[in-house]
Amino acid sequence: MRTNSEKTLTRRSLGAFVALGAGAVLIAGTLATPASAQAVGSPEGWASMNGGTTGGAGGATVTVSSAGALVDAMASDGPLTIQVQGTIELDGMNDVTSDKTVIGLDGAEITGGGLDIDDAHNVIVQNIAFSDWGDDAINVQDGSTNVWIDHNSFTNGNDGAVDVKRESDYVTISWNHVFDHEKSMLLGHSDGHTADRGNLRVTYHHNYFDGSDSRHPRVRFGDGVHVYNNYYRDNAEYGVASTMDAGVLVENNYFENVDNPTHVGYADSDPGRIEARGNVLDGSGALETAGSVPEPPYSYDLDNAANVPGIVSGGAGPTL
User: Fold this and answer.
1) Residue 251 is part of a domain; what is its CATH number?
2) Which among 151, 220, 144 has a CA at the least distance from the CA of 185?
3) Domain with 228 in it
4) pTM for this structure?
């Protein structure tokens, strides 16, 4: 006999299934089932703070294979794990609301459009190959908090792969592969958007910036930004840029054939601060550094920079 709480969750799950319509398959219908389809692992870095990031944990799980079903699921109320199946072509930017996990099954792709995490809390995007987006692949903005972008790939898009801006905070971007793309990861909206001060605490770790041109990341205003154990290879313009008094710790990364591993200031933006330690420069220029940066308040596992190319190239991207 089911308990009252199991009956309640089943009714909610069936309601979600009906609302999502064609292209969605309900996986979880009881309290015992959803945990089997939750995000793999847990975030390290800033997304582990402020209560942590669990995405759709505790809610139902649906599998979607059409654009309509995916868009409806991401915009629905309450916690939900959304398993993406096959290739889905989106148009424009599509809202992702609070308490969502968007996780790709083996071979999952999203093309043509992107995800807009706008004024949302507790969101995970994991294990998806993004390509050919018209605006951004993933945009985190308007005070969104506790967001984890993990084990995805990004190629051949129009603008940012993963942009974080407009007072967003407590974000981790990890184990992603960016290739054949120009503008990778912007942090901070513009030089004039001073409201970003005191926010934009983001960790970037174990990402593979594979021949991508710039913004790995380009930072405005954020202080305590942590960039560690990333693999930079053949980046045409630069690796990391710190501007508008941002504070960035660049730690144990591997820069291969990168003329400008770091910039203190960039274009028309005022300079920021960069501390650098433990990095390997392989056929690369000198690191620009200036000022001091707060120590990270969280624990983290730091790989030796000499081992980063093998570790990151073998593990970044949709490999879960």
Assistant:
1) 2.160.20.10
2) 220
3) 119-314
4) 0.90
